[in-house]
Amino acid sequence: MSRKKLKVKADKRYSIDQCRLYKITSLKKLCEILSINNEELKLLIDKSRNSKFYNCYTNQKGRLIQEPINLMYRVHNRIANLLARVETPSYINYSKKGCSHISNAKAHLYSKQLITFDIKSYYQSICNEALRRFFRDKLKCEQDVAYVLSIICSFEGSLPTGSQISVYLCNLANIDMFHEMYLQSNRFQQEFTVYADDITISGDIVNDSHYNVMKKIIERYGYIIKEEKTKRYTSNQTPIVTGVALKDTVDVKNVYYKGLRELCESINLNVDNESYAQLKDEYLSLKGKIQYIKQLNREVPCFILQTQSLLEKKLEGQL
Length: 319
Fold this sequence. Notes:
By secondary structure, the chain is of the alpha+beta class. The chain is built from 14 helices and 9 strands. The chain has helices at residues 27-34, 38-44, 50-53, 70-83, 101-106, 122-125, 128-138, 143-152, 166-172, 175-187, 208-220, 254-270, 276-295, 302-315; strands at 54-58, 64-68, 113-118, 191-195, 198-203, 231-233, 240-241, 244-246, 250-251. The strands form 3 sheets. Strands 4-5-3-6 form a 4-stranded antiparallel sheet. The model has no long low-confidence stretch (mean pLDDT 93).
């Protein structure tokens, strides 16, 4: 059954001590802030009701998604709206107005050496205890309030992968770890950025010793680096940071252009044999890819624009 998606607004920004979740002293006050009653709060913290409050499925990439529904969805949206406005350091580029994977990459544009690495199973590794500490130590909530919030904001002991709250809590719950990594990078005049589970350090010299220190910090906080995705780039290589190629400026990866060329060739070959629905899907997909290239201030190759024009004419019945 379809439902209207509730938005998260982050038009205002404030320090964490200005958040409405700051220093909540009682469960009664928590209910007031979340716009629920005591009976609804009891339902939310009853773990046996997970099936009533979550839709669990595997997405196209094979990832398990836990999507809050019904009352849980409404409460998660409320919490997300409050957390989205909390200021985070400039090195965090994830889920923040005015920032993106592109701004994350741009921070490293003029560095000679880079190392990028990912935290393994990031959301699943952010446990109840990490959430409880955040609500208790950073938001200064009373112990019982912090505990209840950690239960509401988790699914089977971890941050839910399909919730609006997760994109903010993954930043905020690990702010001490990221700050420690930032200070370590700053000691060596290195750039440091975070985009969800993607971490990048760069500078004139970035070597294995710097990476190993970062790894130890991450492990001390209970996380593991996904070693197979760790990439090291020297001055004679083109770094890829959060999917963006760093050349004389930010650019689309070569493999992205290759995939686009293959897509356009396929469209041109089959355009006369496809249904209207197929043509429309291809047109919208191509339009999105063109927009992405424009976001990087790059010129869109002619072959892509020609294919877009062909699709437009077919959809309008001109061919």
